[in-house]
Amino acid sequence: MIKIRDILGLPFIYDDGSKSPGFLKDVIIDINEKQVKAFIAEKKGLRKIITTFGFDDIREIGAGALIVKKHPVYEENENKKYKENGNANKKFSDIDNRKYEIKVYSRNGDDLGFVKDVFFNAQTGHIEAFELSDGLIDDIIEGRKVIPLIGKYEFGEEIIVVGIDAVQEMTSLKRKNGRRTLE
């Protein structure tokens, strides 16, 4: 599983060795399909260049870089394709900056927190788990929680309802040596 926050800022490298299109600026997630759809590269220079790569354009996601299979044919068309999918496509940065907040509830109605990060499968792009936050104070005292998408769950525009299986498998992230680790 890959955590989106861990790969932000990594460089893109074309597998043919040609010039890099920049660094990972954002990730587009389709909430309805529970899938990572695209990666947004940003290259700064005299002018900022934004390039969008579909999930299928990525050959490998490593600890140090994203390896890209091909050059996008026409960058603006790719950008439009992912923006025009209605409300289903969300940028990770919008979730992270709380412009778009996703609350998570159990089937019993318990408020589990809001989505702060997303874990996905590097081969398929499927979202496998969420990192949840109850707010800054609770994050410091108790740590964040990771809830896997197992059992029955439902996605809505701004909420996710998870079953008892997921709640029972929920784990806490605690800070050790400056890094968050699963308990």
Structural class: alpha+beta
End-to-end Cα distance = 16 Å
**Could you describe the largest sheet, including whether it forms a barrel?**
9 strands, mixed
Helix content: 10-25%
Going by CATH, what is the homologous superfamily of the largest domain?
PRC-barrel domain
Please, how many helices?
5
- Please give the domain count: 2
Radius of gyration: 17 Å
Q: What would the average pLDDT be, to the nearest integer? A: 81
Low-confidence stretches: 175-183
CATH architecture group name of the largest domain: Roll
Number of strands: 16
CATH class of the largest domain: Mainly Beta
CATH topology of the largest domain: SH3 type barrels
Beta-strand content: 35-45%
Order of helices and strands: EHEEEEEEHEHEEEHEEEHEE
Q: Tell the overall outline.
A: elongated
